[in-house]
Amino acid sequence: MRRAVIIASVLIGLAVLLFVFAQTPPSAAPDLARLIPAGPLLYVEAKDFGALMSDWNSSEVKKLWLDSDNFQVFSRSRLYLKLQQAQTEFAAAAGVPPNMDLVANVAGTQSALAIYDIGKLQFLYVTHMPVDRFAGGALWKTRGSFQPRQSSGIDYYIKTDPASKRVAAFAVAKDYVVLATREDVLAGALALIAGQTGSAVASEQWFAKSVQQTKSPGELRMVMDLEKLAKSPHFRSYWIQQNITELSQYSAAIADVRRSDGSLVEDRVLLRSAEVSPAWNEAAVGEISRLAPANAGLYRAWATPTSDQAFELLRRKILEPRPDTQIAPKTAPVVALGDGAVGDETDLETRIDEPPLETGAPDIGAELRNILRNSKIDAMMDVGATRVQSDGVFVGTESGVVLLADSNWDADAIRGAVSAAFAKQLSTVENGARWIDRGASANAYSEMEGLQLVALRVSGRALIIATSGDLMAAILGGLPAQPLPGARYRAEYRHSKELPNFIKMMRLIDNPLAKETAGNPPEPAFLSGNIASLGETLARIDSESIAVHDTGAVVAQNLVYKLK
């Protein structure tokens, strides 16, 4: 189930990027940030917004997504309904519905969008566009119903919906079309376009520092003031990753997306509010990542984990695999009402100065935990894959964990600790399990005899544990390979390989016998319907990989989405 959540999160992230970039990259865009007044918490810039919109509207992915369960569920979500309400209010203010026709009318080449308030949807949009093209659109033709005003000698038009107080304003200046939902922001942008002095977002510290840490802009750039965003209740409510606490250590972030040789490449930079000492070994992640098998659906590698983090990974993946979270109950707890008595004579022998006897489950893996606590771990890696069972119906999962220490492991101590961990689960007398040698020479490993299949190999500093012999052999095949470039964190998800098995597995986990009732179709199952349809929409993606580097002050993330 953990892997299902990871896959769902990855798919949602990919949806924003795929097929927006379907053609040849345009030429470099000018700096529009000097025309945007200071104060936004989010800034987005496109080199050629009109071309991107054309690519999206003509793409097969858009058609698939609009017909998918994922879109149908989204169209009934609270977020979508709130956006629809804002759209209705804007249409009442502007006299023109903010549909795709309007977007196409104002989609110029170099374009920038600045969000000043998420909840109120206060924004400023500037695009480079010939005046005669904009003059042929519906918005310009309705200017007679707007109030004409001036800023810095430039005419602009504004209108307010009396019911919602929503503001719609626009102007044309020097081949720039400017739209806004705040009059002061529009006036400030016109002053900057006219060449007057003023505070622009380009001069704000969070923006300038973010841009300094990047290379040239991508085809699409987004810059975020994370300190402001994290304080917004709407961002905290609707941010899909739900990691506001983790984001609190960063002051700003920037992301650039571009196309490169059949791939989409995204470069992100996050700036820490306070620099930390880089006490991690990035080279170790490059060394351990070479063991990631090519047939694995997912692998993740971390630099310098704590011993408790390493043990927790082993416990969840190998020793006691189970869902990380329990399903929330839908019924209230039962309250047992007594007669008010708090004790009787039978309690006289109960000692109140001693803790109660603990009768919980055995401490699984205590011996292995002690070994890890006495070791320094340079890197750890989690490997996962799915495989259709021999019956052709069920899909099973295979997991592997690799730990890279700063010195050689004690192979006998590791085998004994793993045997003890499983003996507590499989035997009431905790008899040790017997190990059988498998493979030969470089591919040799030990397999624990019994119902629970566990493969183990200690190779110098590398400790490898897997739940199948095939996965163990695939991991061992990487031992002779050269190390990959170092990283604080490295991961790859192979979408084209895992999606069919994911759908097959989730259809069995979700209710496969659910039937539609007359006139009332059921809500699509979250995993096998909602998320699976999103995965099928993004079927052109072959894999996604990420490499993270961390200097202590700056975190750089490089993501590559390979297309088929």
Describe the structure.
By secondary structure, the protein is α+β, with helices and mostly antiparallel strands. It folds into two domains: 7-272, no CATH class; 282-322 and 364-476, no CATH class. Helices cover 33% and strands 25% of the residues. The chain is built from 20 helices and 20 strands. The chain has a 20-stranded antiparallel β-sheet, with helices on both faces. It is elongated and about 85 Å long. The two termini are 27 Å apart.
Number of domains: 2
Distance between the termini: 27 Å
Helix content: 25-40%
**Could you tell me the number of beta strands?**
20
How would you classify the helix and strand content by structural class? Answer: alpha+beta
Q: What do the pLDDT scores average to?
A: 85
Low-confidence stretches: 1-29
Question: How would a textbook summarize the main sheet?
Answer: 20 strands, antiparallel
Strand content: 25-35%
**Shape field:** elongated
| Alpha carbon gyration radius | 29 Å
Count every helix, treating DSSP H or I runs of 4 or more residues as helices. 20
